[in-house]
Design goal:
By secondary structure, this protein is an all-alpha fold. It has one domain (about 5-150). It is built from five helices and no strands. Helix 1 (about 5-35) packs antiparallel against helix 2, helix 1 (about 5-35) packs parallel to helix 3 and helix 2 (about 40-85) packs antiparallel against helix 3 (about 90-145). The longest helix has about 55 residues, at about 90-145. The protein starts with 5 loop residues before the first helix and ends with a helix.
């Protein structure tokens, strides 16, 4: 396994994917900061565009290394399957028939595809979970260190959050639904009628 270079490719994939994901989180942090704390200006947008452009090489490197891992691991699996097939008794193979042997080939292809794609996805998901844990930890630490200070942007956010969380009554929803349907019917009659 070491001869195939899989550990090196796996570490390259992990590093590139982690850096790509960290830059992705940084881009959202910049946008969130621009919306909630500071006014959005051209410097913030330039920084955001620079972070997005910086993601591209890492995304390309992680995609390439994922493909290289799939090819190398697939090659190792095929070699092991071929070695196992060569050890089988020829009389047993004849007794099984062509259909059963073809089914074994199809099953080995399915196992290879699922193992490689599922393995890389679970590896990437573990990196995302680590980053999410770090974000939650930093957020909790920041809340403990400094109590929230009332600012204009946070009050705007609080007003939006309160209006979005306001319970809607079924009667009001029904009334809005009727008004929407009536407006829709009026607009379609105008468009359809000669």
């Amino acid at each position: 396994m070491r001869d195939s270079g899989l550990p090196r490719l796996a570490s390259l994939f992990a590093l590139a994917y982690a850096l790509d994901y960290a830059l992705f989180v940084l881009s959202w942090w910049l946008l969130g900061r621009g919306v909630l704390v500071t006014p959005i200006d051209s410097r913030l947008l330039h920084a955001w565009a620079l972070v997005l452009a910086s993601m591209l090489p890492f995304r390309m490197l992680s995609t390439w290394s994922a493909g290289a891992i799939a090819v190398s691991a697939g090659e190792l699996l095929k070699k092991r399957l071929l070695q196992g097939a060569m050890r089988l008794d020829p009389d047993e193979l004849r007794a099984d028939g062509a259909g059963r042997n073809l089914a074994r080939v199809f099953e080995s292809e399915a196992v290879e595809t699922l193992a490689l794609s599922g393995g890389l996805l679970s590896f990437a998901a573990s990196i995302e979970l680590l980053v999410a844990f770090g974000i939650v930890t930093l957020g909790a630490r920041a809340a403990r260190i400094a109590p929230p200070s009332p600012t204009a942007s946070r009050s705007r956010f609080a007003r939006f959050g309160c209006s979005a969380a306001r319970p809607r009554t079924p009667r009001g929803r029904k009334r809005r639904g009727r008004a929407w349907i009536q407006e829709y019917r009026r607009s379609t009659r105008r468009d359809i009628s000669p």
